[in-house]
């Protein structure tokens, strides 16, 4: 794919010129893959020790006695070996890996390129042999990737023996009961560093909810879903998957990729009444009926606040530098359609009219060959500098594509400064009708979907069952999705999650695509590029 830094020249951010600009970024061709530096993820496990120096491997090495040889993180392990020099220091190494996401970030797009894994060894501990040359080391299995690991005993830079340990997976849910709409935190530990060990599928009552991974969280995947369905016991199942659940993992080459199953009890809503005596039963029934009809509130669950580790993908023109003596800033870098943003600048010409513009793109990925989208400028308004050349103006985020954009400050036909701004997703109104007749169609309306493979689509679950996705590129960020009210009278949930779009263009080795990506909050590649893609949660009440 042609690097888009070659597209624009100084001054072409002027409104009207960009709209007809013929040179555009093609959405097909070879992309330049980059393994992004791992961001600082709140709560993520850290490497279990310092990276070990390379060691030599002699023609013959011994076998460490490791007891036990299987278990979960935290398991105490004893490592023994005989026949070493007396009173000798021995480094005990642990085989692990460093993983990250791969992306291709350009001026006018960002593509998902898959995952990358680099094997490495870390020093877990050191031990000293006794007077008879016997090694006896004790370690606790670290919170790290699951699967098969190797312990290495190293003396003076040379391996003397090794032994294996297999880390099994564990899972927890909290809480284990609650009314419809209760947030349930699911934590799955021990996912592996390799492709086939690195993902997991989540089911609710044998319905596919979505995909989890732990590329940046070293084998620990955490997600939140909401309790749905009638009062009673419901099934939560989690297990190994690249996309969908691997049902006979015990017969696979990786039989340790065990899953987990939980029961969650959906309960009636809790109600209290102050009425006593004979009227109490009636008052309780009325309060319960009212509570059962009360919808869970519309909510947007934002991802962790992560400092980007790669260049933020914007529509900034890399050939344009802020003019000498000019400084500029925005009151915020993130906002929804219509949000006010204060543009401040100094060092401009005094008492001069300044044009403010917004740079975006127009186009589509559908059946895309050749030129599929082009940059376009939109006027945000004008403002006048004061006698000292200072500018302070309020602009409103235009209704259009979400994602990274440029706000340009233009004076006398020249761009004096450009500032990155990210339009985030929002819900129009309450997002969906509150009450729908059974079998009827209803609309879910969102704003701010973008055009990159990270933000141009959104995956939709209905009562924790994946039903499809919506795309906002061709419709300029406006996404109007029609669903059918099913499941019988009562409250039903619509949960929408970020999705890794792996089509048009398609690249090799891009797992976890085209499904709800449930671990978006701490392990989604767009976070490294400054994208903040949330889960959006709505509810309807179905009536006959």
Task: Describe this protein's structure.
It is a single chain. With 544 residues, the protein is mainly beta. Among the domains are: 4-30 and 308-423, Macroglobulin (MG2) domain (Immunoglobulin-like); 62-167, Sandwich (Immunoglobulin-like); 169-294, Sandwich (Immunoglobulin-like), CATH 2.60.40. Helix content is 3%, strand content 45%. Strands 2, 3, 5, 7, 8, 10 and 11 form a 7-stranded mixed β-sheet that branches.
- CATH fold-level assignment of the domain at 4-30 and 308-423: Immunoglobulin-like
Considering the protein shown, what is the CATH homologous superfamily of the domain at 4-30 and 308-423? Macroglobulin (MG2) domain
The residue ranges in which pLDDT falls below 50 over 5 or more consecutive positions are: 1-31
- The span between the termini is 53 Å
* CATH architectural label of the domain at 4-30 and 308-423: Sandwich
Q: Write down the oligomeric state.
A: single chain
How would a crystallographer describe the biggest sheet? 7 strands, mixed
* Proportion of residues in β-strands: 35-45%
Mean pLDDT: 90
CATH class of the domain at 4-30 and 308-423: Mainly Beta
Instruction: Please give the count of helices.
Output: 1
Shape: globular
Overall strand count: 36
Radius of gyration: 28 Å
Structural class: mainly beta
Helix percent reads under 10%
Structure at a glance:
This protein is an all-beta fold and 544 residues long. The chain has one helix and 36 strands. Helices cover 3% and strands 45% of the residues.
Show the helix and strand layout.
Elements: E1 25-26, E2 34-35, E3 62-63, E4 65-67, E5 70-71, E6 76-81, E7 89-106, E8 109-128, E9 135-140, E10 147-155, E11 158-167, E12 170-174, E13 177-178, E14 183-189, E15 199-204, E16 207-213, E17 220-226, E18 232-240, E19 260-266, H1 279-292, E20 299-301, E21 327-330, E22 334-335, E23 340-346, E24 353-363, E25 371-384, E26 391-396, E27 403-411, E28 414-423, E29 426-427, E30 435-437, E31 441-447, E32 457-462, E33 466-471, E34 479-484, E35 490-498, E36 535-543
Parallel strand pairs: 3-11, 5-11, 13-19, 22-28, 30-36
Antiparallel strand pairs: 1-25, 2-7, 4-6, 6-9, 7-8, 7-10, 10-11, 12-14, 14-17, 15-16, 15-18, 18-19, 20-36, 21-23, 23-26, 24-25, 24-27, 27-28, 29-31, 31-34, 32-33, 32-35, 35-36
């Amino acid at each position: 794919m042609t690097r888009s830094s070659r597209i624009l020249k100084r001054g072409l951010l002027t409104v009207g010129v960009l709209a007809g600009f013929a040179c555009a970024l093609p959405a097909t061709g070879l992309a330049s893959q980059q393994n992004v530096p791992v961001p600082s993820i709140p709560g993520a496990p850290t490497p279990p020790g310092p990276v070990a120096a390379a060691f030599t491997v002699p023609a013959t090495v011994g076998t460490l006695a490791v007891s036990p040889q299987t278990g979960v993180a935290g398991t105490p392990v004893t490592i023994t070996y005989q026949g070493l020099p007396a009173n000798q220091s021995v480094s005990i190494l642990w085989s692990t890996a460093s993983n990250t996401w791969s992306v291709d970030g350009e001026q006018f797009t960002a593509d998902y390129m898959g995952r990358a894994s680099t094997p490495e060894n870390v020093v877990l501990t050191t031990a000293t042999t006794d007077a008879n040359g016997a090694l006896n080391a004790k370690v606790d299995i670290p919170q790290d990737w699951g699967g098969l690991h190797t312990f290495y005993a190293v003396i003076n830079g040379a391996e003397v023996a090794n032994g294996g340990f297999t880390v099994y997976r564990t899972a927890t849910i909290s809480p284990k009961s609650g009314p419809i709409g209760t947030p349930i935190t699911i934590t799955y530990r021990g996912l592996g560093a390799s492709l086939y060990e690195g993902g997991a599928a989540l089911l609710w009552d044998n319905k596919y909810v979505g995909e989890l991974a732990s590329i940046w969280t070293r084998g620990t995947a955490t997600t939140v879903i909401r309790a749905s369905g009638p009062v009673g016991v419901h099934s939560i199942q989690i297990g190994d998957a690249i996309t969908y659940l691997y049902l006979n993992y015990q017969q696979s080459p990786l039989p340790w990729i065990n899953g987990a199953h939980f029961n969650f009890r959906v309960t009636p809503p809790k109600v209290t009444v102050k009425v006593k005596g004979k009227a109490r039963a009636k008052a309780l029934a009325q309060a319960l009926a009212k509570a059962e009809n009360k919808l869970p509130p519309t909510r947007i669950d934002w991802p962790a606040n992560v400092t980007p580790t790669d260049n933020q993908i914007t529509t900034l023109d890399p050939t344009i530098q802020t003019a000498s003596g000019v400084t500029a800033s925005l009151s915020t870098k993130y906002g929804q359609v219509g949000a006010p943003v204060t543009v401040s600048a100094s060092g401009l010409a005094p008492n001069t009219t300044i044009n403010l513009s917004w740079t975006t793109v127009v186009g589509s990925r559908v059946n895309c060959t050749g030129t599929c989208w082009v940059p376009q400028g939109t006027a945000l308004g004008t403002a006048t500098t004061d006698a000292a050349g200072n500018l302070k103006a309020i602009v409103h985020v235009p209704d259009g594509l979400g994602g990274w954009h440029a706000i340009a400050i233009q004076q006398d036909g020249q761009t004096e400064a450009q500032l990155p701004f990210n339009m985030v997703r929002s819900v129009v109104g309450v997002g969906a009708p509150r009450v729908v007749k059974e079998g009827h169609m209803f609309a879910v309306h969102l704003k701010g979907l973008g055009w990159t493979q990270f933000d141009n689509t959104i995956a939709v679950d209905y009562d924790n069952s994946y039903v499809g996705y919506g795309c906002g590129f061709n419709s300029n960020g406006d996404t109007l999705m029609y669903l059918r009210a099913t499941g019988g009278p009562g409250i039903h949930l619509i949960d929408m999650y970020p999705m890794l779009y792996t089509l048009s263009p398609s690249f090799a080795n891009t797992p976890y695509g085209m499904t709800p990506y449930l671990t978006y909050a701490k392990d989604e590649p767009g976070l490294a590029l400054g994208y903040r893609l949330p889960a959006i949660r709505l509810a309807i009440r179905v009536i006959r």
